Amino acid sequence: MKKFILGCSMLLTLFLGCASILNSQEPYPPVFDNAREVVYKEIDGIQLKLWIFNPSGLRLTDKRPAIIFFFGGGWTSGSPGQFEKQCEYLAARGMVAITADYRVKSRHNVLADKCVADAKSAIRWVRKNAATLGIDPVRIVAGGGSAGGHLAAATAMIPTLDEPGEDKAVSCVPNAMVLFNPALITAPGATKNSEFESKMVLSGNRIGVPAVDFSPCHHIKPGLPPAIIFHGIDDPTVPFFTVKIFTEKMKEQGNRCELVGYKGEKHGFFNYGKKSNGPFVSTIEKMDAFLVSLGYLDPLPETELY
After folding, report:
1. Alpha-carbon span 69 to 123, nearest angstrom
2. Rg over CA atoms, the chain
3. CA distance 29 to 232
4. pTM, 2 dp
5. I need a labelling partner for 233 at 20 to 30 A (CA). Which of 45, 97, 168, 193 fits?
6. Which fold does the domain 2-17+24-305 belong to in CATH?
């Protein structure tokens, strides 16, 4: 009789079953059958919502770790439905998993600095309400993909762009970051690649503030939350070398930052439904291991092999 660890792949097979492949474009507003909907912010007549996926058996007296995901879409479009499957998986593993809405250009005619303000507001709301959500306020993870990965990093690293009048006594800084092909360099000076900087650096008329005030890589310092980054090595939208630079700079400042590159993969490779869910499962496995290493998830159980 031998023992083996029940791996994420097996757990995901049981969890996902024969679920149908989703369309690449998630509907907006999203509709979830198994999530609680709450309004975390009202501004300019707009209600911004969180969808909370609770683990089975959650009690309000619990202090569960939580994760908040921010969708991608170039700060212009996108839907919180992008991270539904990640939320379902992590809730099944015992975390409170949340996917967040925020203002974007196409729906609300805002510049990208408002996206950062909303992301910060979302984390503040969760931390402020942790006691009534069954959440540990010092184990909150920020996650996201592409522009949403930028927002997750910005909540930890950008010292400005808060919503005016918001209570800054409640920290918007997450305790860890899980970033999927994130845009981490938006201003000149972080790379020696002039071609990249001429094409990819964002202009103030798109983001509403000087580019350096929006760029996580320009605000690296010691003491930042631990991070893991998943990125396609052949990503043409956010080049892989940008996250390599970010990772190196994080480590130079003594921060934990793990970079997982995927050969042959491009932007959005991690999304549910891509390539028979191979990349999705792989990133889930590695995210799970990262969260276990932080003590946010229990190790996967051992089972008997006869």
Report:
1. 10
2. 19
3. 28
4. 0.92
5. 97
6. Rossmann fold (3.40.50)
